[in-house]
Amino acid sequence: MKGHVPTPDDLADHIVEKLFRENPPAAGETILYPGCGKGPFIAAVERYCNTNGHPIPEGVAIELDPEHLTAARERHADLPVEFQERDFLGDVADLGEFEYIVGNPRMFPSKGSMKTRNSGTSSSSIPLSGDSTSTSSSSNSP
Predict the structure, then answer these.
(1) Which of 85, 88, 120, 130 is the most buried (most CB within 10 A)?
(2) Nearest-angstrom CA–CA distance, 33 and 44
(3) Percent helix, strand and coil across the chain, each rounded to 5?
(4) 3-state SS, residue 91
């Protein structure tokens, strides 16, 4: 395990609100939770969507620590999230693209990128950096 940084619920809520402010989730969209820990961002996305009347995006949650992954899986068993035990800092090319990526910014490598898409029509590369914002959303148009 590279390190666990628990995110308080109020901070996770703030970050998710910022993520969805200009581009709220729509049916069929996807979200990646890298280094999900016990799932504070998954819970924050659920709270935001339920409060604001948006569908909960289908998600992929990545966590290296099996105990944290089990806790997240049990806590969010009723949500459309696939849980994977693996190292997000390793090879993740097989994950595909997502409309949203949300997580603790210090879990991202300082170099590299992750692709995201907007409604499947276009792609943009999101830089992964500890110095960048902790939320990413694609808003490109074709």
Answers:
(1) 88
(2) 11
(3) 30, 25, 45
(4) coil
Tell me which residue has tokens 């935001």.
48
Handedness of CA 78, 79, 81, 84 (dihedral sign): negative
**Residues 49-108: pLDDT tens digits?**
999 999 999 999 999 999 999 999 999 999 999 999 998 888 888 999 999 999 876 544
For the chain, the domain total comes to 1
Q: Which domain holds residue 124?
A: 9-137
Q: Is 110 inside any structural domain?
A: yes
What is the separation of C-alpha 83 from the centre of its chain, rounded to a whole number of angstroms? 12
Span 124-136, pLDDT tens digits: 334 333 333 334 4
